[in-house]
Amino acid sequence: MIEPLRCNVVRTRAAFSLAVLLTCARPAFSLNLALDVRQYAHTAWTIGDGLLNSRVSAIAQTPDGYLWLGTESGLLRFDGIRMVRWLPRADEHLPSTTIVRLLVTRDGRLWIGTLSGLASLKDSRLVTYPEFAGAVVSALAEGSDGTLWAGTISLPNGRLCAIGRAVQCTGQDGRFGNGVFSLFDDRGTLWAGTATGVWRWAPGEPDLHPAPTTANIRSLIRINDGPLLVAMAGGVRQLRGEKLDAYRIEGVDEGFDAVSLLLDRDGGFWIGTGRRGLIHVHRGRVDRYLPSDGLSGDLVGALYEDREGNIWAATNNGLDRFREFAVSTIDAKQGLPTDSAHSVLAAKDGSVWTGSSGGLTRWKDNKRTIYGTPAGLPDDHVGTLFQDSTGRILVSTLNGMAVSHGDRFVPLRSVTAHVVYAIVENRPGDFWISDVDQGLIRVVGEEAVQRIPWSALGRDDHATAVVADPLHGLWLGFYKGGVVHWSDGVIRTSYGATDGLGAGRVAQLQFDRDGALWAATAGGLSRIKDSRVTTLTTANGLPCDGVHWNIADADGSLWMLMPCGLSRIGSMDLAEWIANPGRSVRVTLLDSADGTRTESTPSGFTPSVVAFPDGRLWFAAPSGIGVVEPRRHPFDAPPPPVHIEQIVADRETYDPTIVANGTLQLPPHIRDLQIDYTALNLALPQKVRFRYLLEGRDRDWQEAGTRRQAFYNDLRPGRYRFRVTASNNGGAWNEPGASLSFFVAPAYYQTPWFMAVLGGTVILIAWGAHRLRVRIVERHQGEISALNERLMKAQEQERIRIAGELHDGVMQEMQAVTMMLGAAKRRIPADSKATETIDKAQQKLIQAGTDLRQLSHDLHPPLLQEAGLPRAVTAYCEQFGAASGIPVACDADNEVSDLSRGAGLALFRIVQEALGNAAKHAKATQISVRLSRADGTVSLTVADNGVGIDQSRLARGGGLGLIMMRERASQLNGRFEVDSTPGRGTTIRVLIPFR
Hints:
Methylamine Dehydrogenase, Chain H, 5-stranded mixed beta sheet, 19% helix, alpha+beta, Immunoglobulin-like, 995 residues, Heat Shock Protein 90, 39% strand
């Protein structure tokens, strides 16, 4: 575990590192900045973008993790990636497809309030309630005793109903006016927002608090122990005593329409408004999010917080998700002079200092002070910071250095350093400064007393990292790589890449409590202990090799900033790697999707990171100060739940939840099977990874990456079991995953009884005809075999001859012409216009030669002749994928290797043409190729997810490529099929007899 040295070591020796200073200081850090809503990760889905086709009016989440969206045109189920329309069974019907309210009760039941009634859904069974037929179910709430409350809008009188073993309704006397618009269970007290005002309905006698206007009361909420808040036209109101008074929000004008209210788990207060966007109140800070900031619409009708802490907002034009980044950023909106930072320092008095190109910022007790040239700094561009043993702050700028004296800074006139990467204190008042140009500068007090150029250390570069040795001297890490121990003017020890040290720039050096020296390098994280060097790299599981800095948090986990993001290794994994450097470690990567902003090369100014006693890490980043709170994020979170959503067999969809005897029955002749699966992670669904296995077909697990579909072609009759697992961002796999058993029924001619009858019939016929045919077969079999062999050999020899003539004849002649043109060019004056003409002619000849060489290779593919069709198809798919940048999944059965050369070459040509069409015309982003042999038939399937082909064009035969592929299949007595729908991809299938 990496930790700074114990403080008692510092007290016994004068030399100590920056990490030791921070640990010994134990600052009582109390800065607690509220995040602006613009600093949340925001994603918007708008109506018409392919997922949503109508307005979202209600949101809820069921225990299985799915998010349910009630829309004006039906109910959607959302896994973070795909929105799937939920359809009831044939014998079940929703009262209306216009959904008004959704609620999930503690028993996991989804209640659905519609424009014409109420329904509930559990275990795939839909229940409707005739008591609400024809009424708008506008409000739903679950009481503390489990009672389900439902409010309706109807003319002339709205109702409030309690649903238990029976349904009991009230309101027929008109007390609620034309409707109940909102319900809120406040720890056992039921509040109802109605057309006549706010009712405290239960327990005890109902009590009405009239509204000052006739506006609908759309939402009710209580913040902690504060007053009841009411959303209505004209703004938010609060119930104080018997009156609904205005609830003022700092910085927000009164008069806006409040539509929805939400209190999140962190105490944030969200207000959805009509035409005024989203208002967010957190820790006294108020900010707004508008369509100009990316909000999908200006009217926010519903707000919801899911189990992962995501905030969902349904607007008049779409759906928005707000997610707090794992790594939040403090930038200019939070008080930095600029949106970038170079260094961060935690001082002994509990303050935090940050250096940037806009000056020096001090944070203390939630207050900030910015220092610049008026405060005595030589320059506003602040780099490295350091606090000495007396508490003074040393500041480096691009125009010199300064030291703090109270609230002002005094320039160090004798120190002319400009680009300082490190400052260390050997003894109280005795410093070493690493400057890019001047080398090591020794400063005693405030005077420079010694300068050692880098050339005196045998270097042509400069030190980018310096740390004081606990015993004596300095450890230096250099720009071009390498670490040395320098003491008394002599290099005592040195380590480089040949010794196992990470190659490239050394960005940071620090000691741990065990006396090991850690070096963050461009080639990995190195550890030096007892003259032994070990390095963590991608070979051990790191997502990339470069390390800008590393630090341990309060739990002993190791954090590293890298070009690819912020990485974390748990303390147990780290300890096991130290004991066995050859093992891999489990790494959690927080990249840009998690809010990490990094760069390929570190700025070099120090300190670049600091850990606080409360566990928080602050680090300098190109976008400001990055902040991560390890204890807020469960890095050992359980893997996501996995679900198999549906099976599509030959375009027929089957619900896996409706099975008989635990096995889904599929009809015979299944050629194309698609299995859709998912894993529920609504915060970062794009980071969930999958693998699957079809027992009875696959030998090993198939790595699917982030793909949520599995495809199979031409499954034989029999029983199968599909298994799928998923992992979260930390690499934790849900090993049980989900599974589904299904049975592909045999056709009548594939059943045992039919085979028995057929076999007997064939035997009788064969025996009767045997004597008649045997002589004819014996006489002609040899002749036919010899003729077929000669024809195939002649075809192959002709292809080889043409390829050879093209290569050795035509191409040699073209090369000779090219040389002749070159000779002619040399005889012509350089300024002659004929020179340009000759150059163009040579270029055209060279291009023609290249085309002829490719044509020769295509006529006679060497790999096809040497290794057979499966190897040739696999190699071509890999070559095509690398050249086009389109992933090609290829599955070629080795049983096809014995296919005749002529047939193999024809299928190879079809693969070439089909892949070319998918890339050039279909604009595909994913292609799959499958070559297999079964029952005397060779099957080739090429499928893509491109734009598809218009049906009218298919009816005319398609383009030249399709015509050529169809002719090749016909020559092999085969069948050629094209299945395509515009916008949904194309599947080409060729079936030929095996020869």
